[in-house]
Amino acid sequence: MLVIKDLYAKVEGKDILKGINLTVNAGEVHAIMGPNGSGKSTLANVLAGHTNFEVTHGSITFNGKDIFDMSPDIRAKEGLFLSFQYPVEIPGVSMVNFLKTAVNEHRKYRNEKELTAGDFLKLMREKKAMVQIDSQLTNRSVNEGFSGGEKKKNEIFQMAMLEPTLAILDETDSGLDIDALRIVSNGVNMLKTKDNATILVTHYQRLLDYIVPDFVHVLYEGRIVKSAGKELAIEIEEKGYDWIKKELGE
Amino acid sequence: MEDQNKLIKEVTQRDYRFGFVSDIETDTIVKGLNEEVIRIISAKKDEPEFMLEFRLKAYRRWLTMKMPEWAQIKMPVIDYQEIIYYAAPTQQAKYESLNEVDPELLRTFEKLGIPLEEQKMLSGVAVDAVIDSVSVKTTFKETLAERGIIFCSFSDAVKHHPDLIQKYLGMAVPYNDNYFAALNSAVFSDGSFVYIPKGTRCPMELSTYFRINAKNTGQFERTLIIADDDSYVSYLEGCTAPMRDENQLHAAIVEIIAMDRAEVKYSTVQNWYPGDKNGKGGIFNFVTKRGICKGVSSKICWNQVETGSAITWKYPSCVLMGDNSIAEFNSVALTNNYQQADTGTKMIHIGKNTKSTIVSKGISAGHSSNSYRGLVRVAPKAENARNYSQCDSLLLGDTCGAHTFPYIEVGNSSSIIEHEATTSKIGEDQIFYCNQRGISTEDAIGMIVNGYAREVINKLPMEFAVEAQKLLQISLEGSVG
């Protein structure tokens, strides 16, 4: 589904990613861990197509297509979803209007008929129940005045509405209390099928208690320096990242 | 970034979508302005003597006045002798049914989306359509008449209700108020007249659609709304004009009088031709709008969405005379390309416990200039006057300008005046967030800007709100920096 080959990228002239290689197949959950500043969020943003990040080398294919040929909205409509670390507020734009536009843009892209207002609201009710989001949130403007936890829940709710094939969750666990973490993880687990895949970008192993990854990768100084199964996350939780740095001879 | 800039350029330079010209026979008089022309206009309209005197008085005053130069706008000198001051469709008789109306005219209405057809009347909008100065068809007049409501063209009102005209004409905007008010008072051709009797709630939105069609014609319409004690009316004004290379002058006057406990809501969606992307052509829009909250506990509310005109010079104002009267001004003004807008309001507190609210949202894109100019004055006798002003500016791109000129004059120490102002840019992060949900940059900007203007758009009647939203989308989606 996703193949990243020898990817280099920079932000404001500074090299951040220095040769990333990663393959994600349908049905898989990958966790990307790593110390602060290792390039985790950069990788997520490069995948989504943020223009502040400049790719200088390498390739990414998504469902067999070159991702660099696609603008961010096309990538989204191709099924790539990014759950933002810091979702922005859009004052005055209602969640309903925002999501209805988003869902219908996806449908148009797939040559499907746009949802009527009635069908859309029905879908929204179903998905709200599924991810246990407070009804009140969807009556407000996009993320406006939401608490940190509400913003994250709202991201997962949008993911449920858009049913992506590849979901990238950027630090979705940060700022969540234990109940919110459980709700968010439940949502992610429920949306998991054999046809889609998830990339979890996280600092902590805690999230991985709830969403069990098939692979754990450690990103350090712009490269994936270690990949293994879920046991790697536990080892990191116990020992930190220093032993990996040592292994690398630093 | 580069892509985005390209898109901004592409979208903000989109052509005006209402630039069609209707091929309708018009009866025009020779261009130029002098007393003779004013006498001809008055004669053509078969006006009583007092109207001609009013016009001549205004004209003589105008001759002594100078074009105001304090506004934040740049413009060429207007040659008033090059303008035709009267143009009317030649079929002047009022029609019994729509079948008799020039089909070309009907098509114009259709393009404008005016609900003149019988079936559309059910939608509950009474329309007084003004094309090049003469009111062509007034719908719903009879339904309204049953309740004693008068809604007709200004000329009809002069003919049939001269007493009301004589009493109220110039009460809110005196003929010598300012340069353009004097000009309008001298040459105004037509407009709308509304009278709501005591204790009557107007059962539908009243609407006028203005359109400047003929070449080189200035449009000088005049609207007078009188709401008697305990009455209510909501009035809608929409404007478009065909695309022409030369600039056209539009100098209108709107007067509102609200008596005891009366409420008047006046909503405008202004989409005059703004000129092309190089700043050629477009309407010069110099409008004087003023309401008087004459009675106790009366209320006047101005709502406006301004996206058109090459130059907009407009300050819908309220004089709060009656004790406990309330005034509101809610505005969205959008400028793009080389448009210039200097707009705002004046709130003059005279009565006790009067309250005014100002919400102004400016949006600038391209090379445009957008200024808010507002005056809040509290007279010495206005005990406990209260004003809240909020002026927000949104900038799209780095070649436009936004300015705020608030004037506050307080003569009574018991009053409370608040003024808040913000300036912001559309965030790239907001756009990216929308992109990531599958929404194109163009649509995202339309959405974000509409969200920014929501507070004001929500004040508009439903049909107008939808139109306003579309206009904002058309006029500025894509303009980001």
Please give a structural write-up.
The complex is a heterodimer of chains A (250) and B (481). Chain A is α/β, with parallel strands linked by helices and 250 residues long. Chain A has a single domain (2-247), classed as Rossmann fold (3-Layer(aba) Sandwich), CATH 3.40.50.300. Chain A has 9 helices and 12 strands. In chain A, helix 4 (117-131) crosses helix 5 (148-162) and helix 5 (148-162) packs parallel to helix 6 (178-191). Chain A is globular. Chain B has helices at residues 2-12, 35-44, 49-63, 103-112, 118-121, 141-146, 154-160, 162-168, 179-187, 428-436, 441-457, 462-476; strands at residues 26-28, 87-89, 125-131, 134-138, 150-153, 191-196, 205-211, 222-227, 232-240, 247-250, 253-258, 263-271, 282-293, 299-306, 311-314, 317-320, 326-335, 340-349, 355-364, 369-378, 386-395, 401-410, 416-425. Chain B has one domain (21-426). Chain B has 481 residues and is an alpha/beta fold. Chain B starts with a helix and ends in a 5-residue tail after the last helix. Classes of the chains: A alpha/beta (250), B alpha/beta (481). The A-B interface holds A 48-52, 71-73, 76-77, 81-82, 84, 87-88, 90-93, 97-99, 101-102, 105-106, 109, 141-142, 158, 162 and B 1, 3-4, 427-430, 432-441, 443, 447-448, 450-455.
